[in-house]
Amino acid sequence: MQALPGERFMDYSEISLKVTRSSTVEVKRVLYTVPSRMIGETVRVRLYHDRLVFYVGQALTVTLPRVYPQAGQERARRIDYRHLIHSLSAKPQAFRFLQFRDEVLPTETYRTLWRHCDQQFQSQDACKWMVGVLRLVMDHGCEERLGNELLVNVDNNKPLPPLKALQERYLGKKPVPAIPTRQHDLEGYDHLLQGSWYHREAAHA
After folding, report:
1. Which stretch of 93-97, 118-122, 172-176, 192-196 has the lowest confidence by average pLDDT?
2. 163-171 helix and 123-140 helix, angle to the nearest 10 degrees
3. How far apart are the C-alpha atoms of 170 and 97, rounded to whole Å?
4. Up-side HSE of residue 140: CA atoms within 13 Å toward CB?
5. Cross-strand bridge partners of residue 64
6. What's the pLDDT score for residue 177?
7. 180 Cβ contact list (under 8 Å, min separation 6)
8. In sequence order, what are the residues at sequence separation of 6 or more whose Cβ sits closer than 8 angstroms to the Cβ of residue 74?
9. Which residues of 72-102 are buried (b: 16+ CB within 10 A; e: fewer)?
């Protein structure tokens, strides 16, 4: 048997793609979302059997688990709302028209919440509410807890709380610390205006 090579062989293939305005790329018939900061970038993607590694220039930007279409399916998707939420927060109405909108919602709980908020609120407010809730759960790591809590309202036929109430609860208003101030002796300004500034201590020395 021959000796093993001194360097590891290349166990990946590499392709170059441009990230769409929807923050997506398509690789081997699978649509992936990537962080919105990569929109418009041309990326190099290393395809391993179990993961995709994305580079912008020489910088590694994100690694995603690789997905394959199921038997009998021509295509597949891997959608992560955390990749899209910042761009959606700027334009929440875009949420309604996403082709993969239901897949942006992370669980069946959130799909149920969307159906109910879309009935309870006006069209624009419903999108703003749903995107705002997703932003909260991403920023505060409370996806399961908040989702289950809001689902209780649905199960008990109670209205969903306004987004502002949820934001105030999670973001809150941090108290402004009291900053001690010291008022200068006004007599000193009189001397300054008269052109005879001096230190009182020096005058009494």
Report:
1. 172-176
2. 20
3. 28
4. 19
5. 52
6. 58
7. none
8. 29
9. eeeeeebbbbbbbbebbbeebebbeeeeebe
Dihedral Cα 101, 105, 108, 110, nearest 10 deg: -110
Q: How far is CA 113 from the centre of its chain?
A: 20
> What 3-state DSSP class applies to 142?
coil
Amino acid letter, 61: T
Mean pLDDT of the chain: 87
In 147-201, the DSSP E strands lie at none
Task: Give 159's contacts (C-beta < 8 A, 6+ positions apart).
Answer: 120, 153
Contact 80, 107 (CB under 8 A): no
* DSSP H/E element including 94: none
Helices (H), 15-94: 81-90
Where residue 170 falls among pLDDT bands split at 50, 70, 90?
confident
- As a whole number of angstroms, the distance between CA 24 and CA 80 comes to 10
Residue 203 to residue 144: CA distance in whole angstroms: 71
